[in-house]
Design goal:
It contains seven helices and four strands. It is an alpha+beta fold. The protein has a four-stranded mixed beta sheet with strand order 2-1-3-4, sandwiched between helices. Helix 3 runs parallel beside helix 5 (87-96). It is globular. The termini are far apart.
Length: 145
């Protein structure tokens, strides 16, 4: 359920996305707020500027939260973002411990507005393979002898 406070913070994330355009960056913005709706950090997409495919604002804030917040505090935060996080960002958000994500545009809506956004190739996987060899570093790290 989206509250009035959620809408206000989501509008701020959209404003960050709009500001990104004026800086020459892609139009995606996010912010992280605590349980009292105090903004802790903001970010926008800098993929082109940084020549870094991981420079999505959601992933930047997930990294920030994992580095700067203890797990209990992170669990009480909400990420507000102009578009639904991609799979890469969703993975980072899960690992960061951020408690909640609220987004404005869904992936489907984004693709409708910009079809190029849905043009990512499907990754073809082969595996698992070489279990006995692959397990050695895992066993060594997690089960020291």
């Amino acid at each position: 359920m989206i509250t009035t406070a959620d809408e206000e913070l989501l509008r701020r994330a959209i404003a960050i996305a709009a500001q990104a355009i004026t800086l020459g960056d892609a139009p995606y913005g996010s912010l992280l707020a605590d349980q009292d709706d105090v903004v802790l950090a903001e970010a926008h997409n800098t993929v082109r500027r940084d020549n870094d495919i991981t420079a999505h604002p959601e992933l930047k804030l997930a990294r920030w939260a994992a580095r700067e917040l203890d797990p209990d505090t992170a669990a009480r935060t909400t990420l507000y973002t102009s578009c639904q996080p991609c799979d890469m960002c969703a993975g980072g958000l899960l690992r960061s411990g951020i408690g909640r994500v609220v987004y404005a545009l869904s992936t489907e809506q984004l693709i409708e507005l910009n079809p190029q956004s849905g043009a990512w190739p499907t990754v073809i996987e082969s595996g698992p393979a070489l279990f006995e060899q692959a397990r050695v570093p895992i066993d060594t790290y997690y089960r020291p002898h």
